[in-house]
TrEMBL record:
This is G protein-coupled receptor 3. PROSITE patterns: G_PROTEIN_RECEP_F1_1, G_PROTEIN_RECEP_F1_2. It is found in: Cell membrane. The lineage of its organism: Eukaryota, Metazoa, Chordata, Craniata, Vertebrata. Pfam families: 7tm_1 (PF00001).
Protein backbone atom coordinates (compact mmCIF):
# COMPACT_ATOMS: atom_id res chain seq x y z
CA UNK A 1 0.00 0.00 0.00
CA UNK A 2 1.50 3.33 -1.08
CA UNK A 3 0.75 6.36 0.99
CA UNK A 4 -0.46 8.69 -1.72
CA UNK A 5 -0.61 9.07 -5.44
CA UNK A 6 2.43 11.35 -5.58
CA UNK A 7 4.68 8.65 -4.09
CA UNK A 8 5.52 6.60 -7.19
CA UNK A 9 6.16 2.90 -6.66
CA UNK A 10 9.59 3.09 -8.40
CA UNK A 11 11.83 5.39 -10.40
CA UNK A 12 12.66 4.52 -13.94
CA UNK A 13 16.29 4.37 -15.05
CA UNK A 14 17.87 3.69 -18.41
CA UNK A 15 20.16 0.91 -17.15
CA UNK A 16 22.31 1.23 -20.30
CA UNK A 17 25.18 -1.16 -20.84
CA UNK A 18 28.06 -0.03 -23.15
CA UNK A 19 28.19 -3.25 -25.17
CA UNK A 20 24.49 -3.37 -26.10
CA UNK A 21 23.27 -1.90 -29.40
CA UNK A 22 21.24 1.27 -29.03
CA UNK A 23 17.92 -0.29 -30.08
CA UNK A 24 18.38 -3.16 -27.61
CA UNK A 25 19.34 -0.73 -24.89
CA UNK A 26 16.08 1.20 -25.30
CA UNK A 27 13.94 -1.93 -25.31
CA UNK A 28 15.57 -3.42 -22.20
CA UNK A 29 14.92 -0.46 -19.93
CA UNK A 30 13.91 -1.85 -16.54
CA UNK A 31 12.43 -0.05 -13.55
CA UNK A 32 14.69 0.26 -10.54
CA UNK A 33 13.68 -0.71 -7.04
CA UNK A 34 13.35 2.27 -4.70
CA UNK A 35 16.18 2.97 -2.29
CA UNK A 36 15.78 1.52 1.19
CA UNK A 37 14.54 4.09 3.70
CA UNK A 38 14.35 4.36 7.47
CA UNK A 39 10.56 4.01 7.19
CA UNK A 40 11.00 0.76 5.28
CA UNK A 41 13.38 -0.73 7.84
CA UNK A 42 11.11 0.32 10.72
CA UNK A 43 8.18 -1.22 8.85
CA UNK A 44 9.91 -4.58 8.46
CA UNK A 45 11.16 -4.68 12.07
CA UNK A 46 7.78 -3.72 13.54
CA UNK A 47 5.96 -6.22 11.32
CA UNK A 48 8.32 -9.00 12.43
CA UNK A 49 7.84 -8.14 16.12
CA UNK A 50 4.07 -7.94 15.73
CA UNK A 51 3.85 -11.27 13.91
CA UNK A 52 6.13 -13.07 16.39
CA UNK A 53 4.46 -11.70 19.50
CA UNK A 54 0.92 -12.48 18.35
CA UNK A 55 1.90 -15.90 17.00
CA UNK A 56 2.98 -16.84 20.53
CA UNK A 57 -0.36 -15.68 21.95
CA UNK A 58 -2.48 -17.48 19.34
CA UNK A 59 -0.46 -20.71 19.62
CA UNK A 60 -0.68 -20.66 23.42
CA UNK A 61 -4.47 -20.23 23.45
CA UNK A 62 -5.16 -22.81 20.75
CA UNK A 63 -2.80 -25.39 22.30
CA UNK A 64 -4.31 -25.11 25.82
CA UNK A 65 -7.67 -26.93 26.21
CA UNK A 66 -8.48 -25.05 29.43
CA UNK A 67 -8.49 -21.70 27.59
CA UNK A 68 -11.89 -22.02 25.94
CA UNK A 69 -13.90 -19.36 27.76
CA UNK A 70 -15.42 -16.55 25.62
CA UNK A 71 -12.71 -14.12 26.65
CA UNK A 72 -9.97 -16.44 25.35
CA UNK A 73 -11.79 -16.90 22.03
CA UNK A 74 -11.86 -13.12 21.69
CA UNK A 75 -8.19 -12.81 22.62
CA UNK A 76 -7.29 -15.49 20.06
CA UNK A 77 -9.23 -13.56 17.42
CA UNK A 78 -7.45 -10.36 18.41
CA UNK A 79 -4.07 -12.10 18.26
CA UNK A 80 -4.84 -13.60 14.83
CA UNK A 81 -5.91 -10.22 13.45
CA UNK A 82 -2.77 -8.53 14.75
CA UNK A 83 -0.66 -11.43 13.43
CA UNK A 84 -2.07 -10.81 9.94
CA UNK A 85 -1.34 -7.10 10.34
CA UNK A 86 2.31 -7.94 11.02
CA UNK A 87 2.40 -10.22 7.97
CA UNK A 88 0.88 -7.44 5.85
CA UNK A 89 3.61 -5.03 6.96
CA UNK A 90 6.31 -7.56 6.09
CA UNK A 91 4.76 -8.20 2.66
CA UNK A 92 4.52 -4.46 2.05
CA UNK A 93 8.24 -4.14 2.77
CA UNK A 94 9.13 -7.07 0.49
CA UNK A 95 6.96 -5.88 -2.40
CA UNK A 96 8.16 -2.30 -1.98
CA UNK A 97 11.91 -2.75 -1.60
CA UNK A 98 12.86 -6.33 -2.56
CA UNK A 99 10.85 -7.20 -5.68
CA UNK A 100 9.50 -5.16 -8.55
CA UNK A 101 6.32 -3.38 -7.35
CA UNK A 102 3.09 -4.02 -9.22
CA UNK A 103 -0.60 -3.24 -8.96
CA UNK A 104 -1.53 -6.69 -7.68
CA UNK A 105 0.99 -6.46 -4.83
CA UNK A 106 -0.49 -3.10 -3.76
CA UNK A 107 -3.99 -4.57 -3.84
CA UNK A 108 -2.89 -7.68 -1.89
CA UNK A 109 -1.12 -5.83 0.91
CA UNK A 110 -3.75 -3.11 1.23
CA UNK A 111 -6.58 -5.67 1.32
CA UNK A 112 -4.78 -7.81 3.92
CA UNK A 113 -4.01 -4.77 6.06
CA UNK A 114 -7.60 -3.52 5.91
CA UNK A 115 -8.92 -6.99 6.81
CA UNK A 116 -6.55 -7.40 9.75
CA UNK A 117 -7.07 -3.91 11.19
CA UNK A 118 -10.86 -4.22 10.84
CA UNK A 119 -10.87 -7.61 12.59
CA UNK A 120 -8.50 -6.29 15.27
CA UNK A 121 -10.66 -3.28 16.05
CA UNK A 122 -13.87 -5.35 16.12
CA UNK A 123 -12.16 -7.92 18.36
CA UNK A 124 -11.22 -5.12 20.75
CA UNK A 125 -14.87 -4.12 20.85
CA UNK A 126 -15.71 -7.78 21.52
CA UNK A 127 -13.28 -7.85 24.46
CA UNK A 128 -15.01 -4.78 25.91
CA UNK A 129 -18.40 -6.45 25.40
CA UNK A 130 -17.12 -9.60 27.12
CA UNK A 131 -15.97 -7.60 30.13
CA UNK A 132 -19.30 -5.82 30.34
CA UNK A 133 -21.34 -9.05 30.14
CA UNK A 134 -19.08 -10.86 32.60
CA UNK A 135 -19.85 -8.14 35.17
CA UNK A 136 -23.55 -7.61 34.46
CA UNK A 137 -24.31 -11.39 34.07
CA UNK A 138 -21.67 -12.83 36.36
CA UNK A 139 -23.68 -15.95 37.31
CA UNK A 140 -24.50 -17.19 33.79
CA UNK A 141 -21.75 -15.76 31.59
CA UNK A 142 -19.04 -18.23 30.58
CA UNK A 143 -21.37 -21.18 29.95
CA UNK A 144 -21.40 -23.29 26.81
CA UNK A 145 -24.14 -21.11 25.33
CA UNK A 146 -22.01 -18.01 25.90
CA UNK A 147 -19.09 -19.66 24.12
CA UNK A 148 -21.30 -20.50 21.15
CA UNK A 149 -22.52 -16.91 20.98
CA UNK A 150 -18.93 -15.65 21.13
CA UNK A 151 -17.89 -18.03 18.34
CA UNK A 152 -20.84 -16.90 16.19
CA UNK A 153 -19.94 -13.26 16.82
CA UNK A 154 -16.33 -13.86 15.81
CA UNK A 155 -17.43 -15.69 12.66
CA UNK A 156 -19.53 -12.67 11.66
CA UNK A 157 -16.66 -10.31 12.49
CA UNK A 158 -14.20 -12.18 10.28
CA UNK A 159 -16.68 -12.58 7.42
CA UNK A 160 -17.37 -8.85 7.53
CA UNK A 161 -13.65 -8.01 7.74
CA UNK A 162 -12.87 -10.24 4.74
CA UNK A 163 -15.66 -8.68 2.68
CA UNK A 164 -14.46 -5.17 3.53
CA UNK A 165 -10.83 -6.07 2.87
CA UNK A 166 -11.73 -7.55 -0.54
CA UNK A 167 -13.00 -4.18 -1.74
CA UNK A 168 -9.75 -3.03 -3.42
CA UNK A 169 -9.19 -6.38 -5.16
CA UNK A 170 -12.80 -6.40 -6.40
CA UNK A 171 -12.31 -3.09 -8.20
CA UNK A 172 -12.80 -0.43 -5.53
CA UNK A 173 -9.38 1.17 -6.05
CA UNK A 174 -7.85 4.23 -7.71
CA UNK A 175 -5.15 2.60 -9.85
CA UNK A 176 -6.93 3.65 -13.05
CA UNK A 177 -8.05 7.03 -11.71
CA UNK A 178 -5.29 8.60 -9.56
CA UNK A 179 -7.35 11.72 -8.89
CA UNK A 180 -9.72 9.65 -6.71
CA UNK A 181 -6.92 8.29 -4.49
CA UNK A 182 -6.99 8.77 -0.74
CA UNK A 183 -4.04 9.33 1.60
CA UNK A 184 -3.34 5.57 1.26
CA UNK A 185 -3.03 4.47 -2.37
CA UNK A 186 -4.60 2.35 -3.91
CA UNK A 187 -7.63 2.98 -1.67
CA UNK A 188 -10.10 5.53 -3.02
CA UNK A 189 -11.10 8.46 -0.87
CA UNK A 190 -14.71 7.22 -0.69
CA UNK A 191 -13.62 3.76 0.42
CA UNK A 192 -11.22 5.06 3.08
CA UNK A 193 -13.77 7.60 4.32
CA UNK A 194 -16.37 4.87 4.85
CA UNK A 195 -13.74 2.68 6.48
CA UNK A 196 -12.55 5.39 8.87
CA UNK A 197 -16.14 6.37 9.62
CA UNK A 198 -16.81 2.76 10.61
CA UNK A 199 -13.66 2.77 12.76
CA UNK A 200 -14.89 5.86 14.60
CA UNK A 201 -18.27 4.21 15.23
CA UNK A 202 -16.55 1.14 16.69
CA UNK A 203 -14.39 3.41 18.89
CA UNK A 204 -17.50 5.21 20.19
CA UNK A 205 -19.32 1.91 20.92
CA UNK A 206 -16.25 0.54 22.71
CA UNK A 207 -15.99 3.65 24.87
CA UNK A 208 -19.69 3.30 25.74
CA UNK A 209 -19.10 -0.32 26.78
CA UNK A 210 -16.22 0.68 29.07
CA UNK A 211 -18.41 3.42 30.54
CA UNK A 212 -21.02 0.73 31.23
CA UNK A 213 -18.31 -1.39 32.87
CA UNK A 214 -17.53 1.49 35.24
CA UNK A 215 -21.22 1.92 36.11
CA UNK A 216 -21.74 -1.79 36.79
CA UNK A 217 -18.57 -2.01 38.89
CA UNK A 218 -19.67 1.01 40.91
CA UNK A 219 -23.09 -0.57 41.57
CA UNK A 220 -21.45 -3.81 42.68
CA UNK A 221 -19.12 -1.94 45.02
CA UNK A 222 -22.03 0.00 46.50
CA UNK A 223 -24.08 -3.19 47.02
CA UNK A 224 -21.17 -4.93 48.75
CA UNK A 225 -20.55 -1.90 50.93
CA UNK A 226 -24.22 -1.77 51.91
CA UNK A 227 -24.28 -5.46 52.83
CA UNK A 228 -21.21 -5.07 55.01
CA UNK A 229 -22.74 -2.03 56.77
CA UNK A 230 -20.01 0.48 56.09
CA UNK A 231 -19.95 3.57 53.96
CA UNK A 232 -18.67 3.13 50.39
CA UNK A 233 -16.99 6.51 50.60
CA UNK A 234 -14.58 5.23 53.27
CA UNK A 235 -13.56 1.68 52.30
CA UNK A 236 -10.61 -0.12 53.88
CA UNK A 237 -7.14 0.30 52.36
CA UNK A 238 -7.03 -2.97 50.35
CA UNK A 239 -10.36 -2.11 48.68
CA UNK A 240 -9.20 1.43 47.86
CA UNK A 241 -5.91 0.09 46.52
CA UNK A 242 -7.49 -2.57 44.27
CA UNK A 243 -10.13 -0.15 42.98
CA UNK A 244 -7.52 2.47 42.18
CA UNK A 245 -5.34 -0.11 40.45
CA UNK A 246 -8.25 -1.37 38.35
CA UNK A 247 -9.24 2.18 37.42
CA UNK A 248 -5.68 3.06 36.38
CA UNK A 249 -5.51 -0.06 34.18
CA UNK A 250 -8.80 0.91 32.56
CA UNK A 251 -7.51 4.43 31.87
CA UNK A 252 -4.33 2.96 30.34
CA UNK A 253 -6.30 0.62 28.06
CA UNK A 254 -8.63 3.39 26.90
CA UNK A 255 -5.78 5.87 26.37
CA UNK A 256 -3.84 3.41 24.20
CA UNK A 257 -6.99 2.42 22.32
CA UNK A 258 -8.07 5.98 21.50
CA UNK A 259 -4.51 7.21 20.92
CA UNK A 260 -3.80 4.44 18.40
CA UNK A 261 -7.00 4.55 16.38
CA UNK A 262 -8.35 8.09 16.52
CA UNK A 263 -5.54 9.89 14.56
CA UNK A 264 -5.70 7.73 11.43
CA UNK A 265 -9.51 7.58 11.51
CA UNK A 266 -9.72 11.37 11.50
CA UNK A 267 -6.91 11.81 8.97
CA UNK A 268 -8.51 9.33 6.58
CA UNK A 269 -11.66 11.45 6.61
CA UNK A 270 -9.89 14.80 6.20
CA UNK A 271 -6.92 14.04 3.90
CA UNK A 272 -6.67 13.30 0.19
CA UNK A 273 -4.09 12.22 -2.40
CA UNK A 274 -2.38 15.64 -2.35
CA UNK A 275 -1.76 15.50 1.40
CA UNK A 276 1.86 15.12 2.59
CA UNK A 277 2.74 11.43 3.04
CA UNK A 278 4.52 12.24 6.33
CA UNK A 279 1.15 12.96 7.95
CA UNK A 280 -0.17 9.60 6.81
CA UNK A 281 2.88 7.82 8.24
CA UNK A 282 2.47 9.72 11.52
CA UNK A 283 -1.14 8.55 11.89
CA UNK A 284 -0.81 5.05 10.42
CA UNK A 285 2.14 4.08 12.64
CA UNK A 286 0.07 4.32 15.89
CA UNK A 287 -2.74 2.27 14.30
CA UNK A 288 -0.26 -0.45 13.36
CA UNK A 289 1.49 -0.03 16.71
CA UNK A 290 -1.73 -1.05 18.45
CA UNK A 291 -1.10 -4.57 17.12
CA UNK A 292 2.19 -4.54 19.02
CA UNK A 293 0.64 -3.31 22.27
CA UNK A 294 -2.55 -5.40 22.25
CA UNK A 295 -0.89 -8.69 23.35
CA UNK A 296 0.74 -6.89 26.28
CA UNK A 297 -2.41 -5.06 27.40
CA UNK A 298 -4.96 -7.83 26.85
CA UNK A 299 -3.33 -11.29 26.63
CA UNK A 300 -0.01 -11.34 28.48
CA UNK A 301 -1.57 -9.67 31.53
CA UNK A 302 -3.94 -12.64 31.90
CA UNK A 303 -2.56 -14.99 34.55
CA UNK A 304 -3.95 -18.11 32.83
CA UNK A 305 -2.23 -17.25 29.55
CA UNK A 306 1.02 -16.36 31.34
CA UNK A 307 0.91 -19.70 33.18
CA UNK A 308 0.37 -21.62 29.95
Amino acid sequence: MILNASELPWDESSGLEPFFPLDHQESSTQPELPALTVWGVALCISGTLIATENAIVVTTILATPSLRAPVFLLLASLGLADLLAGVALILHFLFRFCVEPSDWSDLLTSGLLVTSLTASLCSLMGVALDRYLSLSHALTYGSGQSRRRAATLLLLVWLGACVIGAGPAMGWHCLEEPSSCSVARPLTRTYLSLLCGGFLMVVVVTLQLYAGICRVARRHAHAIATQRHFLPTNPPYPSRHSSGKGFSRLILVLSVFVGCWMPFSLWGLLGDASSPPLYTYATLVPAAGSSLLNPILYSLRNKDIRKS
